[in-house]
Amino acid sequence: MGGKRHFRVWRGDESGGELQDYQVEVNEGEVVLDVIHRLQATDAPDLACRWNCKAGKCGSCSMEINGMPKLGCMTRMSTFEENETVTVTPLRTFPIIRDLVTDVSFNYEKARETPAFAPPADLAPGEYRMQQVDVERSQEFRKCIECFLCQNTCHVVRDHEENKQAFAGPRYFIRAAELDMHPLDAKTDRKEYAQAEQGLGFCNITKCCTEVCPEHIKITDNAIIPMKERVVDRRYDPLVWLGSKIFRRPMTETVGHGETSVLGAVHAQPKGGVHSHAGGSHDPHAEAEAQRGVNWHRQVPKPTVPPVDEHGRLPLTELTFDRPAAPSPFGDDVTFPMPVEHLNYAHPEQDEKKH
Ligand code: SF4
Ligand code: SF4
Ligand code: FES
């Protein structure tokens, strides 16, 4: 199947651009990323494209190929007709930096906002034990390579820039679901947090995210739908509500004016209420439920290094940064594990900091 093939590649930057036509050599067994590399070596040496592993594992080479969000390195040329034009465009949901490279820092911000794994207070690292069945259940979500194809595909943000602030996206719903299923995670309100803070209610389970996931993670069936069902059960099923009143201690207890205890931790609640989209609901009960168990007053450290320079381009940090390696996308000032006052879940040590 060797010979020249017709490619159309979007060229441009944040100020605009257009599709450019190329006739390029394609050899047997090649993938779209090979052809992009050949273009860089021949007709378009300044064509910008992100890639790293060429093995479908780093998640860097995300692009839209004939309108479908795909990994360039996993899309075989043999899947196209011999005379078919292959059109390659950048991810549409994220701002353009140049050519096929987009600014995906939206996803890093959402990652940073997602509460981390909360280990049990009475266990030291090394003492954690869990059943194999629990490991396997969340293992599916750990396969995520952070290609952000699902984030790019989801119509909630693809066509509505204004939703980005309120919506974390399918990649972070699977993170919430994974931790919700984790038997050693001491934060018990993952679903409520997903509903109140991550915008789970915006998702109308179209399954487009599942369709494009190169790791074949069943994002909608195994993460989003179970979380939605459990949020609804907990809030609206009268039997579940009655059962929780009769048999179970409530997840949070009011311990004083403006304070709420969550599994022993105490957090001040904001005065005058807190904005929460609670899945787009304005139901005050749902809002109040959704806010339980979240440290609303956490300090959020700001990155000290901007992700892009004033021209919207990524800095050549390997050359210009004042120490080896690039700054962390989580911010140069962030240390891990994060200080407890920066966490937005009920960490047991948050109590100790107050006294
Ligand atoms: S299922 Fe939900 S998260 Fe996935 S693409 Fe559809 S609306 Fe977005
Ligand atoms: S869930 Fe799938 S599509 Fe989404 S970022 Fe992870 S690997 Fe990519
Ligand atoms: S280059 Fe790593 S996933 Fe394509």
Automatic annotation (TrEMBL):
Its cofactor is [4Fe-4S] cluster; [3Fe-4S] cluster; [2Fe-2S] cluster. Belongs to the succinate dehydrogenase/fumarate reductase iron-sulfur protein family. It holds the Pfam family Fer4_8. Residues 5-92 form the 2Fe-2S ferredoxin-type domain. This is Succinate dehydrogenase/fumarate reductase iron-sulfur subunit. Residues 280-290 have a biased composition (Basic and acidic residues). Pathway: Carbohydrate metabolism; tricarboxylic acid cycle. The keyword Metal-binding applies.
